[in-house]
Automatic annotation (TrEMBL):
Residues 5-162 form the MobA-like NTP transferase domain. Signal peptide: none annotated. SUPFAM superfamilies: Nucleotide-diphospho-sugar transferases (SSF53448). InterPro entries: MobA-like_NTP_Trfase, Nucleotide-diphossugar_trans. Keywords: Magnesium. GO terms for molecular function: nucleotidyltransferase activity. It holds the Pfam family NTP_transf_3. PANTHER family: MOLYBDENUM COFACTOR CYTIDYLYLTRANSFERASE. The keyword Magnesium applies. This is 4-diphosphocytidyl-2-C-methyl-D-erythritol synthase.
Length: 200
C-alpha cells in the first residue's frame, strides 16, 4: 500500500470574515496546522496541500510541505480534489483526503482509517449522525470517479454509492462533525479542543 495525503485548503472561507480562517488559532495552533501536523506525522513526505483563494497568506503556514494552487477554486470543492489528485505520484495506491478546517480530527482517527483500509482494501470514510464525510481514504480504482466530479460538491455522493455497493467502510468519527465556518464555530471548538489532544 502506497498512501498519499491531500489536505484541502483552497476555499475562500467568506463566512469567517476578512481574516483567513485557517490562520486563526484553535487551541495553541493555527487551524490549518492541526490536520497538517497529524497527516505529516502519519504519512511523512507523502502529503500535499491544495491552496487556492488565500494561497499567498497561507504559504508561510505550510512551511516546506509540498503544495499545489487550485486556480479554479471558485469552481468549488470538486476542482480542489482534482487539483490535489493531479500531483499525486503514479505509484499511489490510494489517497487520504482531509480538510483544513476539521481541527478535532486526531492522529488516532487518521490512523484508524489507514488501518481499516490496509486490512480491507476498501474505501474508508468518517461517519457521524448518518452522514458520510471526510477524512476518507479512496483507492486508486476510484480516482476516475473523483475526476468526473463537477461544481461545489465533495465526494459525499460517491461515498454513498460505494457504500451501497459494499466497497466502502463507514467509520464512526464524531469529531468529523466539528468543522469551522464562522468565528462562532471556532469559539465553540476552542471550548472542546482539549478533548481531542493526542500525540500530534
Amino acid at each position: 500500500m502506497t498512501l498519499y495525503g491531500i489536505l484541502l485548503a483552497a476555499g475562500e472561507g467568506s463566512r469567517f470574515g476578512a481574516t483567513p480562517k485557517l490562520l486563526a488559532h484553535c487551541g495553541e495552533r493555527q487551524l490549518l496546522r492541526h490536520s497538517l501536523d497529524r497527516l505529516e506525522a502519519l504519512l511523512p513526505d507523502r502529503v500535499s496541500v491544495v491552496l487556492g483563494a488565500r494561497a499567498d497568506a497561507l504559504l508561510p503556514a505550510i512551511g516546506a510541505t509540498p503544495h499545489t494552487v487550485n486556480r479554479h477554486w471558485h469552481h468549488g470543492l470538486s476542482a480542489s480534489i482534482q487539483s490535489g489528485l493531479s500531483v499525486v505520484p503514479a505509484d499511489a495506491t490510494a489517497v487520504l483526503i482531509a480538510l483544513g478546517d476539521q481541527p478535532a480530527i486526531t492522529y488516532s482517527d487518521f490512523e484508524r482509517l489507514v488501518d481499516t483500509h490496509r486490512r480491507t482494501g476498501l474505501a474508508v470514510c468518517a461517519s457521524f449522525a448518518d452522514t458520510l464525510s471526510v477524512p476518507a481514504i479512496i483507492p486508486k480504482r476510484f480516482f476516475s470517479d473523483l475526476q468526473a466530479l463537477r461544481g461545489d460538491v465533495g465526494a459525499r455522493g460517491l461515498l454513498q454509492q460505494w457504500q451501497s455497493r459494499g466497497e466502502l467502510v463507514a467509520m464512526p468519527m464524531p469529531a468529523a462533525a466539528l468543522d469551522v465556518d464562522t468565528p462562532a464555530d471556532l469559539n465553540h471548538i476552542n471550548t472542546l479542543i482539549h478533548q481531542y489532544a493526542d500525540v500530534s
